[in-house]
């Protein structure tokens, strides 16, 4: 026996990284129900199409204004999504959270978000400095020719950063799928970023393409991937700056490096509003 519910949603994107956004303070879907909803609605040809679902939820920590629940397109929970956090902040601001600076609770911890009232203004999210940085992690699989070095770090979720000479012709789908599930990364795996540093160092610009776990495909942008790429460029000494421009297939993001935290800044755009019928098994 199945039940059906009409769910109101907003389709949003941050530099092409797109999401189905809903107010879960009203629906109170469980994580397992959000997982089912993601698998139903995120497929590109048979659903609405999105990289994942963002749910605005009531916080469980007193210092937070609200909570973000992020579920990948395959139904797995994501601990952090930088572009998603910025989109949810825009959604929350339009839904009544009128503070310019808010504290958002995520599965990876608390973060500060600055959301101007202007709809076309960029949104900035501050995260703790990435953890668990490792040069040349001991991967089990062979590193493809063309990758100069591999680095691992955790800017809210697991990331590999692969430095290359040029990203335009890379087989991101095949290389990303192989590296993303390397046995040495454990069950969680990692997002895989392919990063080329602009030959004109004055630009402080990185060119990045990302294969995202949970989506199991290349996405047009990845916020935590942009952060990871900038941190690796800085730590490796290949391009030193306090602020980096990260060019991704879907647009530009800004990454700033501070003493104990980093920030991600970029667009958070509303595409359209709609409703969908969500069917899920009846509870016994």
What would you note in describing this structure?
This protein is α+β, with helices and mostly antiparallel strands and 284 residues long. Helices cover 18% and strands 42% of the residues. The chain is built from five helices and 18 strands. It has an 18-stranded mixed β-sheet that branches. A hairpin with a 4-residue loop joins strand 4 (66-72) and strand 5. It is globular and about 50 Å long. The chain starts with a strand and ends with a strand. The mean pLDDT is 95.
Taking the alpha carbons of the first and last residues, their distance comes to 10 Å
Largest sheet: 18 strands, mixed
Number of helices: 5
Low-confidence stretches: none
- Percent of residues in helices comes to 10-25%
Q: How many beta-strand elements?
A: 18
Secondary-structure element order, N to C? EEHHEEEHEEEEEEHEEEHEEEE
Overall structural class, as computed from helix and strand content, comes to: alpha+beta
Strand content: 35-45%
Rg, Cα atoms, Å: 18 Å
Mass-distribution shape: globular
Mean pLDDT: 95
């Amino acid at each position: 026996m199945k039940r059906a519910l009409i769910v109101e949603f907003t389709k949003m994107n941050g530099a092409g990284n797109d999401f189905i956004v809903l107010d879960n303070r009203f629906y109170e879907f469980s994580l397992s129900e959000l997982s089912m909803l993601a698998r139903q609605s995120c497929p590109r040809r048979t659903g609405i199409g999105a990289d994942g679902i963002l749910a605005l939820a009531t916080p469980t920590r007193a210092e937070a204004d609200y909570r973000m629940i992020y579920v990948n397109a395959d139904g797995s929970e994501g601990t952090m999504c930088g572009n998603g956090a910025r989109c949810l902040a825009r959604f929350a601001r339009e839904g009544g959270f009128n503070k310019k600076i808010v504290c958002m609770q995520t599965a990876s911890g608390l973060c500060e978000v600055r959301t101007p009232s202007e709809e076309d203004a960029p949104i900035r999210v501050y995260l703790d400095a990435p953890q668990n940085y490792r040069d040349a992690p001991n991967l089990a699989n062979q590193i493809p020719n063309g990758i100069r070095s591999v680095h691992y770090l955790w800017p809210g979720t697991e990331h590999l950063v692969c430095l290359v000479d040029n990203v335009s012709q890379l087989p991101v789908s095949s290389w990303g799928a192989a590296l993303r599930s390397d046995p040495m990364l454990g069950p969680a795996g990692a997002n895989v970023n392919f990063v080329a540093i602009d030959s004109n160092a004055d630009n402080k610009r990185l060119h990045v393409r990302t294969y995202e776990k949970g989506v199991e495909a290349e996405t047009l942008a990845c916020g935590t991937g942009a952060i990871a790429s900038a941190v690796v460029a800085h730590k490796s000494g290949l391009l030193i700056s306090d602020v980096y421009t990260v060019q991704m297939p879907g647009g530009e993001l800004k990454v700033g490096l501070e003493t104990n935290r980093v920030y991600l800044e970029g667009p958070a755009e509303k595409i359209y509003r709609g409703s969908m019928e969500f069917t899920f098994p009846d509870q016994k």
